[in-house]
Amino acid sequence: MANKRMFNIKIIDSDSFLDMPLTAQCLYFHLNMRADDDGFVGNPKRVQRLIGASDDDMRLLIAKRFVLLFDDGVIVIKHWRMHNTLSMNRYKETTYIDQKRELLLKKNNAYSFNEGVPLDDSKQIEMSKRQTRRTLDEQKTNTGLGLELGLDKGLDLDIDKDIELVKELELDKEESDQFIKRIDQYTNDESLKDSLIQFVRMMKCKSDKEFNVENLNFVLKKLDNLTMDKDEKISIVYQSVERKWNNFYPLKKEQKKYPEWYSNTETKKASDEQLLKSMKIKKRLLGLGSDDELDRQIEALERKIANDKAN
Questions:
Q1: Fewer Cβ atoms within 10 A, N terminus or C terminus of the chain?
Q2: How far apart are CA 176 and CA 182, in angstroms?
Q3: Cα→Cα distances 249→52, 101, 192, 204, Å
């Protein structure tokens, strides 16, 4: 499988593609990057989980016919031959021969199940084999002469360095399969699976701590001890991912805007005596001038206080 892939702007710049959520678009690009030389992907679920995409994203790609789904779960990129044109010396036929036989090729070079002509790559396969044999013979000859020939040699060295750097932050296939198998055993809920995969990726990217399946078992037990509610588990896991914690902890409660003593303070109504005292102070502040309305309020309040005391 090649390390480089191309994309046709007519496909990814279409309204049908751009109308999809960014998560679905991202999943499409990752599936293209991991497809073999005929556009087939045998583990689309694994790719989906590794990047944190949802089942809805995959269903949307299938519904919009950006990918074609086979009965056994294998998918093929519908517009693969519009995106990529591989040279003969790099082409390697897919291992999904039976699925390839089900496909037809339309006039625009898009795959289809019910429209187009049968695929016939026999000439391309034969030319690829000849080119491979020729390349091997040339390498033997050049090695015997002490020559090292290659195209974009400096560029390939830089690419190799980048690949090595990326590999340091990614899981190898065997370890990744172990993590996914353990997560599948732990829960059937896809959202919880996605959150746990994000947690594993976060832990593997941290250079200060080694993380393996045994460590995952430990934190899963801790998660069960914290809660058995699915939604709360998802929130707890994402809390650890966001804060880059090595374990799971109870959800942080929202910080209160006011201190506890303030929220428990009750507002007490002023007594009639206090209100009368306030009115008289106000009258004195007004000076010698009279305020008939204020005088009437003071007199009414004095009568009320006197009646309350009499009763």
A1: C
A2: 10
A3: 22, 52, 16, 19
One-character DSSP codes across 266-309? PPPPPPHHHHHHHHHHHHHHTTTS--HHHHHHHHHHHHHHHHHH
pTM tops 0.70: no
- Per-residue pLDDT, 124: 65
**Cα distances (Å, whole numbers) of residue 171 to 3, 207, 217, 245, 300:** 17, 13, 17, 19, 85
CB 196 within 8 A of CB 237: yes
More confident residue, 64 or 172: 64
Share of the chain above pLDDT 90, in %: 38
State pLDDT tens for residues 38-93: 999 999 999 999 899 999 999 999 999 999 999 999 999 999 999 987 766 677 88
Beta 75-77 vs 40-41: how paired, if at all?
antiparallel
For the chain, the residue count is 311
Alpha-carbon span 5 to 120, nearest angstrom: 22
For the chain, what is the mean pLDDT? 79
- Coil, helix or strand for 68? strand
Which is nearest to 274 in space by CA: 305, 300, 311?
Answer: 305
Q: Dump pLDDT digits (tens) for 263-291.
A: 454 545 567 787 777 777 766 666 545 56
Model pLDDT, residue 14: 93
- Inter-residue contact 180 to 49 (CB < 8 Å): yes
User: Which letter does DSSP use for residue 102 in this model?
Assistant: T
* Spatial distance between the Cα atoms of 19 and 172, rounded to a whole number of angstroms: 34
Q: Please give the structure tokens belonging to residue 177.
A: 């399969």
